[in-house]
TrEMBL record:
GO terms for biological process: cytosolic ribosome assembly. One of its GO terms (molecular function) is ribosome binding. PANTHER family: ELONGATION FACTOR-LIKE GTPASE 1, TRANSLATION ELONGATION FACTOR-RELATED. This is Elongation factor-like GTPase 1. Keywords: Elongation factor, Protein biosynthesis. Residues 4-252 form the Tr-type G domain. One of its GO terms (cellular component) is cytosol. The keyword Nucleotide-binding does not apply. It comes from the Eukaryota.
């Protein structure tokens, strides 16, 4: 079959809105799976943890054919922790299917996804319409979803007559759009109300077992609900039709050039130039974590590329070593690719880069998302350290919004986009036969002085004046340790004093954590020329500690900033739920265009997972939470955590009574 054009479509949806089930329906049109299995198979979820958890954890693509059009469908994760992959997909896709649960409607999470898609290339799929029991309720429900989606975008984009709205039930593999309604019902009854009425007439006939006439007319052999509905309104055909009628070849490059995607090209591109965007890496064999098994998803925007070609990334030459096309559950090796296409490439490539036949194309890739979720992984066998490092060099290419570092204790410090990404990382490491475990305590605290203390010390060699005080407002004078050092001594002593201060603030005496937001003023005077300078270090450290302990030192936690977007009906429930936590309310905002409220808070990092769980329950899973790192905040008292932290570090001392009282002593746990 001659392929006249290729359309690349990204499918985005909130978790449980039916995205993966819809893709199963599309795969079923190719005869690779039966319609009976569509919806249950989760064909694109090839990872074992995806199947077990029932959520998509990666970008994946599949090539499907509809008449003379090649459709490349990209499946994206719906979980908020992996939203960065939806952002990345915005550079890869010509069109976008955005699924909405008809009952749940437009949620804040859905709104966040709409921000990542090209509005002029989007198709609204209102799914799970079978859950609306009454026909009288169906029109109002569906109309309100369309109205809300348009209000969020700020223009009348989605319209039944534009053929960019689909009513569907992915589990039953049926759907209907304007074109299908027009062909089936005629021009007088093909409006939105007519299409809804048609669905309910068929459903009523199925419920009353009055289907002989329908089955005869449509040549349906199996007289069950799924067979009847999917034959009369085949979802796969409907989706392809809406994509093909919405697609415009120019839209993606227009959005890139107008700075609407993370990829920002800063100059005009000539038509004869080859332009290839290199996205994230994937593993050809999902269980083999080697550089030889790694290839990069790439979007060819224009031009032609062949194996052996040299392209340029900001002047650096890159050789294309191998290329593959996406198939259905497989990859096809090719030598040359021309025109618009999604492919996999091998070579000495870097993720999120733009390759061009010209050597001087200027561009940027700007991510909205930054990692914030901190944890540590402990390597059980340090002999596997080099294996772990090799693995991480592969994983970092397959992920976005992830920072990994092996520290001096051979612990893996992880900065991720959320708990789900960390759990995915743990599975990848486990599959590589490397044993790691999460650190028992991920508590991140620091110490600080609560009040001013001034002390003077003197011995036979030195006079010392030490002043320590808390800094409760951020100051531009803070050093890299987050403190202020004011050293008033002579130059020959200032180096030693600064070294003592740096060591002291790196490990405070209360919980053995760093000291922040504290002012240290030190003045040391030599009493004679023959002073014992080697003794200065010890004396000064002890005197600083003595002074610091008189400032009533306390501790505080590391905070995240969370914006909780919710519908009006959940505002009171959310406040009632989060009031059990120690948090700081920043403000509450209302967006009239979406009718959503956003509660902005600072929360301690260690309650984050419980915080999310409560919000999820209280909002029935509809809330959208945008979280970023903030830092230490010195407004709340966390002194009640001192005992717990000391206990976890083995710093507590306790009295143990033995048989003979004279042998009573203090023992360290």
């Amino acid at each position: 079959m001659e392929i006249k054009k290729t359309i690349i479509t990204g499918v985005v949806a909130h978790v449980d809105h039916g995205k993966t089930t819809l893709i199963d329906s599309l795969v079923a049109t190719q005869g690779r799976i039966s319609k009976t299995l569509a919806g249950d198979l989760r064909y694109m979820d090839s990872r074992e943890d995806e199947q077990e958890r029932g959520i998509t954890l990666k970008l994946s693509a599949i090539t499907l054919l509809n008449n003379e059009v090649e459709h490349i469908i990209i499946d994206t994760p719906g979980h908020a922790d992996l939203e960065f992959l939806v952002e990345n997909n915005s550079v890869l896709s010509d069109c976008f299917l955005i699924l909405i649960d008809a009952i749940e409607g437009i949620t804040p999470r859905t709104y966040s996804l709409i921000n990542y898609i090209a509005h002029d290339s989007a198709i609204l799929v209102i799914n799970k319409i079978d859950k609306i029991e009454e026909e009288n309720d169906a029109y109002d429900t569906i109309f309100n979803v369309i109205k809300s989606a348009n209000a969020m975008i700020g223009e009348e984009l989605f319209s039944w007559e534009n053929n960019n709205v689909i009513l569907s039930c992915a589990t039953l593999c049926f759907g209907i759009n304007y074109n299908h309604a027009k062909n089936t019902l005629g021009t007088e009854r093909c409006n939105l109300k007519g299409a809804i009425k048609f669905i309910y007439i068929i459903e009523k006939k199925i419920a009353t077992e009055d289907v002989d006439g329908i089955c005869g007319k449509w040549k349906i052999k199996n007289k069950n609900r799924k067979s009847i509905l999917s034959t009369m309104m085949p979802l796969g055909d409907i989706v392809f039709d809406s994509i093909e009628s919405t697609f415009s070849k120019q839209n993606l490059m227009k959005n890139i050039m107008s700075q609407k995607t993370p990829l920002r090209i800063e100059e005009q591109i000539n038509e004869e130039d080859t332009l290839l965007f290199v996205s994230l890496a994937l593993l050809k064999d999902p269980n083999l974590y080697t550089r030889e098994n790694m290839m990069f998803i790439a979007r060819l925007f224009q031009g032609s590329v062949s194996v052996g070609d040299e392209l340029y990334n900001n002047g650096d030459r890159v050789v294309i070593e191998e290329m593959f096309l996406f198939g259905i559950g497989s990859y096809k090796k090719v030598d040359t690719v021309t025109g618009s296409k999604l492919i996999c490439v091998r070579g000495k490539l870097k993720k999120n880069t733009l390759l061009c036949s010209k050597s001087n194309i200027s561009y940027k890739y700007l991510e909205k998302h930054t990692p914030f979720y901190k944890t540590k992984l402990i390597l059980k066998d340090e002999n596997m350290l080099n294996n772990l490092k090799s693995l991480l060099r592969i994983i970092i290419n397959t992920e976005q919004c992830l920072k990994l570092k092996v520290n001096k204790f051979n612990e893996l410090e992880v900065l991720a986009s959320g708990k789900v990404q960390v759990e995915k990382l743990l599975i990848d490491i486990k599959n590589s036969k490397i044993e790691v475990s999460k650190a028992e305590s991920d508590l991140i605290f620091c110490e600080y002085a609560k009040r001013e203390c001034f002390e003077e010390f003197e011995d036979e060699d030195f006079k010392m004046k030490i002043k320590i005080d808390g800094i409760f407002d951020k100051s531009p004078e803070l050093n890299s340790n987050g403190n202020i050092f004011n050293i008033k001594s002579t130059e020959n002593l200032s180096g030693t004093i600064e070294s003592v201060l740096n060591i002291f603030v790196s490990c405070g005496p209360v919980i053995r954590e760093s000291i922040k937001q504290t002012y240290f003023e030190v003045d040391v005077v030599e009493k004679h020329e023959d002073v014992d300078k080697d003794n200065l270090f010890r004396l000064l450290k002890n005197n600083i500690k003595e002074t610091y302990l008189k400032t009533w030192p306390s501790i505080t936690a590391y905070f995240y900033r969370c914006g909780i977007s919710i519908g009006k009906q959940y505002v009171g429930r959310i406040y009632n739920g989060i009031n059990r936590f120690r948090y700081i309310l920043i403000n509450e905002e209302y967006d009239a265009s979406t009718a959503f409220y956003t509660i902005n808070t600072f929360i301690p990092h260690f309650i984050y997972e419980d915080f999310l769980e409560v919000i999820g329950i209280r909002s029935r899973g509809t809330a959208y939470i945008k979280t970023i790192e903030h830092g230490f905040i010195f407004k709340l008292d966390f002194s009640d955590f001192v005992h717990q932290i000391k206990e976890s570090k083995g710093l507590l001392t306790s009295e143990k009574i033995v048989d003979n009282p004279e042998k009573q002593r203090t023992l360290k746990r």
